[in-house]
Write a structure and sequence with these properties.
The structure holds 2 protein chains of 2 kinds. Chain A contains 8 helices and 10 strands. Chain A is α+β, with helices and mostly antiparallel strands. Chain A has a domain of 130 residues: Thrombin, subunit H, CATH 2.40.10.310. Chain B has 2 domains: 79 residues, Ubiquitin-like (UB roll), CATH 3.10.20.90; 386 residues, Methylamine Dehydrogenase, Chain H (7 Propeller). Chain B has a 5-stranded mixed sheet, with helices on one face. A 4-stranded antiparallel sheet of chain B has the order 6-37-36-35, with no helix packed on it. The longest helix of chain B is centred in the middle third of the chain and has 16 residues. Classes of the chains: A alpha+beta, B mainly beta.
């Protein structure tokens, strides 16, 4: 029989010692002191390990105690309800909070400085100069190459007169000049044929803006008086910006989307 | 030789002619016309009237008007007369008192008692405060709510005050002592949007009031029993406003864009009478043509001494009938909504809107949501405040657009009328209040002074004072 079995066999046959329960209880009570003595007197790595284990136990115990405490008592309502009191008619509306509004204005100012605006086509393929201009040879022997002809759609104002042909460097052929654009309202989804008032900005460069070249992504100003828009102050709106969405030199017409 | 008589027909606002067409001398002006109307109506005291020809006020003599507008002498000139209030309220232009640091939270609602003696304000610091108007100092602080107080309402007999908070709890107060009567009544599951009392001519002293909340229910409570009597459920979304009409119908407007009319039967049950469905967006605000009279009950601009209950009830009934116009003319209801429109209804006559004050011509309608609509105390005009920074004035009977008051720099939140219906007060997000004159259709006074958005404004029923409060936690009292 195995060693422990003899002990068990004896316990079965004769029972335990009469003071067994008493002794057990007292021994367990002494464990606390023994454990603490051990923890206080151990040195070296052993001491550290014991300390670490005890600390972990203590932290866990604290957490469980706190958890129990929470459920048993009823607390008073939180005092912190005062934030953000709004009248009933504003409650369901998402009003931007103060901080947000201020930072909105700051963001707006930064954007204005940087010159970046929210447009339907934020990035367009850059157009190279040799794609935009064609070299025109001039002179008796056709050796001079300082003239350029624009190969993209352009807009010249109503009062445009050419410079004297001898001196004009950039030729804008009349076949590529446009006065009207087909502008789509993004929300109403209908298209109007509106007159162009001017070119605001060409993303490829300020030179193209001043020349009046319209490529994809150019911001143009169109005459919207026929749409009958009114500002909240009661004034009639007659000019709005739109962004060109197609390649006019390929299609023969200018399609744009209105920037509302 | 020029004709020196003009053929005119005097009619009242609803179109009934006064006598037949008659010849009036060329140089008949305002005073002569007033005399004429007074004699025709056999008025004992001379009442003041204002005259309108095709919706424009007639300020010059009849003859000059004809010349200016080149109206043919052969046509009968229709002159509409409107009674103006006999008394005149002084316009408020100065801030008599700024009470800061009393309310610790933003002021969400202010309301004068119907007799004009007390002022109650509800705030984000969970208290309702009662103010002494003689000394302009705080009188009582009523603590009992555990959340922001969103709405306060006085009973028409000025003896009871009820407030609703963000938790859905309703507290009843004794305004003479500032004490909470009973406990906070619970019932609504979400915040309370509005409170309305039963009119004084239906029950005096006032006992029942109805509250509406975000949970979509309207509940009718009894003030003395302190419990819910009836629950009117049916709306699918939050009920934003509730009004108790003079004929006993309760109107509730809701975010589900319908207005429901409820009735209380003899057995004490609440049944749905009709649903008015014409809006396309949240219904933000309702107003009845007799609203001012229902709110003030038997009190008017003179601070009357109280008499017995029966007499007060009779007086309230008389005032109500006078405000309605004729005995059988229906109460009109106007509703302002998030879909930028205002609709005028005559609910007892038909379920279809009488007039839609809509963006028919782009310039006349509102460009942003309408936050507050309010009938003038004499029921002749409707004013609407909108987030498009304008206040618009409409005819109270036909719903036609009259004029727009522009001047605010930001959303207009609430409006309040002076008791003589001659002036209109509006408060706005741009921290100013503006007093508009209805006669000249212009800005009368600008009342700056608040440091932040103004959320609540009220003109006392005796016309002496105006109270305003908002985000900056100051309560300002303004005087004429």
């Amino acid at each position: 029989m195995a060693q422990g079995d003899y002990i068990e066999l004896h316990q079965k046959r004769h029972g335990r010692r009469l003071d067994y329960e008493e002794r057990k209880r007292k021994k367990e009570a002494r464990q606390v002191h023994k454990r603490s003595k051990q923890a206080q007197n151990s040195i070296g790595i052993k001491g550290k390990m014991i300390a670490k284990k005890n600390y972990a136990e203590k932290a866990q115990m604290k957490k469980t105690l706190k958890m129990h405490e929470e459920s048993s008592s009823r607390r008073k309502a939180d005092e912190d309800v005062q934030e953000g009191a709004v009248p009933a008619y504003l409650l369901d509306r998402e009003n931007t909070t103060r901080a947000k509004v201020l930072s909105n204005t700051i963001k707006q100012k930064r954007k204005e400085k940087a010159g970046k605006w929210e447009v339907p086509l934020p990035k367009v393929r850059p157009v190279a100069e040799d794609e935009m201009f064609r070299v025109i040879r001039s002179g008796k022997r056709k050796t001079k190459q300082w003239k350029r002809m624009v190969t993209k759609a352009t807009f010249v104002g109503p009062g445009f007169t050419r410079k004297p042909p001898k001196y004009e460097r950039f030729i804008r052929p009349s076949g590529l000049r446009f006065t009207k654009a087909h502008v789509t309202h993004p929300e109403l989804r209908c298209t109007f044929c509106l007159e162009i008032i001017g070119i605001k900005k060409n993303p490829n460069g300020p030179m193209y803006t001043s020349l009046g070249v319209m490529t994809r992504g150019t911001i143009i100003e169109v005459n919207v008086s026929e749409l009958g828009l009114v500002t909240p102050a009661g004034k009639v709106v007659w000019g709005k910006y739109a962004q060109v969405t197609n390649n006019p030199e390929n299609d023969g017409c200018i399609n744009a989307v209105l920037l509302v | 030789m020029a004709m020196n008589t003009v053929m005119c027909l005097l009619t009242d606002a609803e179109g009934t002619p006064l006598g037949s067409a008659m010849y009036i001398p060329h140089n008949a002006g305002h005073l002569q016309l007033i005399n004429l109307v007074n004699t025709f109506l056999n008025n004992e005291e001379k009442l003041s009237y204002s005259f309108y020809v095709s919706d424009e006020e007639l300020l010059v003599s009849v003859g000059t008007y004809m010349e200016r507008n080149s109206v043919s002498v052969e046509n009968v000139l229709k002159i509409v007369y409107r009674q103006q209030a006999v008394f005149r309220i002084r316009p408020v232009y100065r801030c008599s008192q700024t009470i800061s640091d009393v309310h610790e939270g933003e002021i969400l609602c202010v309301s004068f008692s119907p007799d004009g003696k007390q002022l109650a304000s509800g705030s984000g610091d969970k208290t309702v405060r009662l103010w002494d108007l003689n000394t302009e100092t705080p009188m009582f602080t009523c603590k009992g709510h555990k959340e922001h107080v969103l709405a306060v309402a006085w009973s028409p007999d000025a003896k009871c005050l009820v407030s609703g908070d963000r938790d859905g709890k309703v507290c009843c107060w004794d305004p003479s002592k500032g004490e909470l009567l009973g406990n906070a009544l619970s019932g609504h599951k979400k915040w309370i949007c509005g409170i309305a009392w039963e009119p004084a001519h239906l029950s005096y002293p006032s006992r029942r009031f109805v509250t509406c909340g975000k949970d979509g229910d309207a509940r009718i409570w009894d003030f003395t029993l302190k419990r819910t009597l009836i629950v009117l459920s049916g709306h699918t979304r939050a009920v934003t406003c509730v009004k108790w009409g003079g004929d006993g119908t309760i109107y509730t407007g809701s975010q589900d864009s319908t207005i429901r009319m409820w009735e209380i039967t003899q057995q004490g049950q609440g049944i749905l009478k009709h649903i008015l469905r014409d809006h396309a967006g949240w219904v933000n605000s309702l107003s009845l043509s007799t609203e001012y009279v229902l709110r003030t009950g038997a009190f008017d601009h003179t601070r009357q001494v109280t008499c017995s209950d029966e007499e007060m009830k009779k007086i309230a009934l008389e005032r109500y009938i006078k405000a309605k116009g004729k005995v059988d003319s229906p109460e009109r209801l106007v509703s302002g909504s998030d879909d930028f429109t205002i609709i005028l209804w005559e609910p007892s006559v038909s379920l279809q809107p009488k007039q839609k004050m809509v963006t028919t011509a782009r310039v006349t309608g509102h460009q942003q949501l309408v936050n507050h609509v309010y009938f003038s105390p004499n029921g002749q005009w409707i004013a609407s405040a909108s987030f498009d920074k304008s206040v618009k004035l409409w005819d109270g009977v036909t719903g036609k657009f009259i004029t727009a008051f522009r001047g605010h720099a930001n959303c207009v939140y609430q409006i309040s009328w002076s008791p003589d219906s001659r002036m209109l007060l509006s408060c706005s997000k741009d921290s100013t209040l503006k007093v508009w004159d209805i006669g000249t259709k212009k800005l009368k006074h600008d009342l700056p002074g608040h440091k932040d958005e103004v959320w609540a404004v009220d003109w006392s029923p005796d016309g002496e004072k105006v109270a305003s409060g908002g985000l900056d936690k100051d309560l300002k009292l303004w005087k004429g």
